[in-house]
Amino acid sequence: MPDRGDVTSPGSLPRGSGARLDRFAAVFERLDAGGYSLFATAAEVDDDVRRAMAAADAAIGSGPRRAAIRDAVASFRDFAARAYSSRLVQTDTVFLFQSLADRPDDRVRFAASLERAVIALILWDELPPDDRAILLGPWASMVERAVGE
How far, CA to CA in Å, does 88 sit from each of 2, 54, 76, 83? Predict the structure, then answer.
């Protein structure tokens, strides 16, 4: 399961974010890596995403808090990379294999959308709902079910 980091140390993750990350991690680890491409966002980042990321970056600040958030995001990315590499190839017929969406650009876009979603979870109480929704992107319904909102 992705590690949410140490939420008890001063200056680490915002209070309450650990429980949200735990609930999301429980749902995230059950996702089939073959479906990760469904969470890959558009190749171009638009102005709304840039604005929401700037707001999140300002809320993150610097120092130990930034490092704790970076570690939490990295644990989700690492978990996804392991899941990608350990998935089984599904056969479509005897001699042909079903192609799972696994292009490098899909993985990059997936990782970026996952990073934004984890940041939105961590900063849930500090971001305006519109920015939070933009950062969650394709993860919104799963995250909202996981955190009970």
Answer: 21, 38, 20, 10
pTM metric for this prediction: 0.83
Fill in the amino acid letter for 10: P
Higher-pLDDT residue of 50, 107: 50
pLDDT of residue 69: 94
Q: What pLDDT is recorded for position 75?
A: 94
Q: Over the Cα atoms of the chain, what is R_g?
A: 16
Q: CB neighbours of 67 closer than 8 A, spacing ≥ 6?
A: none
Residue 147 CB contacts under 8 Å (≥ 6 apart), including other chains: 20, 23, 24, 121, 124
DSSP 128: -
CB 53 within 8 A of CB 118: no
